[in-house]
Amino acid sequence: MLVKSSATIHLKLPRASTSVLVKNLYLSCDPYFRRRMNKPQGRYVIPSLLVRNMFPVNLDILNSIIWLLFSMLQPIAGVGVAKVVDAGHSYFKKGDLVWGFTGWEEYTISAPRTLFKIQHTDVPLSYYTGTLGMPGMTAYYGFYEICAPKKGEYVFVSAASGAVSQLVGQFAKLTGCYVVGTAGTNEKVELLKNKCGFDEAFNYKEEQDLDAALKRYFPPGIDIYFENVGGKMLEAVLLNMRSNGRISACGMISQYNLYREEGVRNLSCIIAKQLLVKGFIVSNHFNLYPKYMEMVIPLIKEGKICYIEDIVEGLESEPAALVGLFSGKNVGKQVVVVAHE
């Protein structure tokens, strides 16, 4: 005879812990996850010093093997919204709502420095995976701090319906710029024009000649390009930039699934047109987060900023949601609901 039983488990941190135990509510799904699955590079490589004196073998191979084994033992880490279950740090208490770095799991033990306490709960909590979280800060820093926009300038945004770029276009319009975006479907093109307020948008998949398309939409040329794509799009943009233009390099999604990245032509335009091209990692600039929140919260509450989300239910939906980003399946910011509090 089969007897069913149930029990309640009370999750709690060890007594001496200074960490924070959270229950994940919403998880962000972002293209950069794919980049982190490639061969370890830059900041994601386990330092060779850790293994230099341990194994007399090729360090590149060894680092790759160690990274692979380490990754297999860990859930994918990303940004999420969560509720505090237990805290060993005085700044947090049980029941606090937070956003920050969590894992693709139901519960995460996080370091206090990786979490932000949510102060504004009169907006959708899912926004803290997007417009009020890392994508919002990315748009803010990449556009305002790098590009220094001026009223009347011509702004081009690639992958414009994504988590970051839909905000960049709206920030540009609020600054008084002329804004054009690209997307991969006609549905997204219409959303950009009718909901996000872009002056124009076009489906890049329907354009045989990207250079000609940009000349059609930007007869005077482009002052600011917010880069998310790379490859052929970047080549065409370089030909159409105006003198002293600025390019904020946020991402290059066209390259993430390639075994070997494509080369980019027309780089001499950077010199001839005296262009500023700058990449950035937003986590290095979160000292500006209070300044960003001071700007964006009133805009949201006054209805001057809209944010398009693509929400799916269940932790098990996360892998398919990630794959869908690279075929353009999502419409807006991809969010996964883990629990409804």
Walkthrough of the structure:
This protein is α/β, with parallel strands linked by helices and 341 residues long. It has two domains: 20-130 and 308-337, Quinone Oxidoreductase, Chain A, domain 1 (Alpha-Beta Complex), CATH 3.90.180; 135-283, NAD(P)-binding Rossmann-like Domain (Rossmann fold). 28% of the residues lie in helices and 23% in strands. It has helices at 32-35, 59-72, 134-147, 165-175, 186-194, 210-217, 231-240, 268-272, 289-301, 318-325, and strands at 20-28, 77-87, 97-103, 107-110, 115-117, 154-157, 178-183, 200-203, 222-227, 241-249, 276-279, 309-313, 333-337. Strands 1, 2, 3, 4, 5, 12 and 13 form a seven-stranded mixed β-sheet that branches. The protein has a six-stranded parallel β-sheet with strand order 8-7-6-9-10-11, sandwiched between helices. Helix 4 (165-175) links the parallel strand 6 (154-157) and strand 7. Helix 3 (134-147) crosses helix 4 and helix 6 (210-217) packs across helix 7. The protein is elongated, with a radius of gyration of 22 Å. The model is unreliable at 42-59 (pLDDT under 50).
Which percent band covers the strand fraction?
15-25%
Low-pLDDT runs of 5+ residues are 42-59
Q: Work out the count of structural domains.
A: 2
H-E string: EHHEEEEHEHEHEHEHEHEHEHE
Q: Find the count of extended strands (DSSP E, 2+ residues).
A: 13
- Output the structural class: alpha/beta
Describe the main β-sheet briefly: 7 strands, mixed
Annotated CATH homologous superfamily of the largest domain? NAD(P)-binding Rossmann-like Domain
- Which CATH class of the largest domain? Alpha Beta
